[in-house]
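Holo prediction. Input below; ligand is guanosine-5'-diphosphate.
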Amino acid sequence: MSNRTFTIIKPEVVAKGFEGKVLDAFSERGFRVVALKKTQFSLEQASRFYAIHKDRPFFQGLLKYITSSPVVVAILEKENAVQDFRKLIGSTNPAEAEEGTIRKKFGSNIEQNAVHGSDSDENAQIEGSYFFSLFEQY
Ligand code: GDP
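Structure of the complex:
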């Protein structure tokens, strides 16, 4: 069990200026910010980040969406971070997400679903290292 996860506050949330509200929701649930920045995915970064989905029908749409405008990326810390964060964000499809989850509150549809959360300790480590060196983690 690891105590860190990686998140992306996705383009539509940042475009609306709601990243502060979402960060607040993370800290209200006990997640501490280890590293944080605003950035915009290049096509190459997005293809690599979502490589696991490269054969899925929604892959090209996903690349277009995630590269469309800036995002906020962060490493978060809490006991049992990966599992607890997935619970906090809710199902991939906001329409199916439980009340009170971030995707229910801020997500628009199965693609524009507000936030990313790593699905394993290993991926949390890999994804965080794409964006932050060890000197940028506090
Ligand atoms: P997650 O772990 O809950 O983010 O879900 P996945 O790893 O399965 O999918 C990665 C991302 O691809 C999701 O967060 C959505 O933004 C997008 N996505 C997943 N499934 C679909 C789909 O069926 N259609 C579309 N258009 N996008 C999807």
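The radius of gyration is 14 Å. That is the main takeaway for now.
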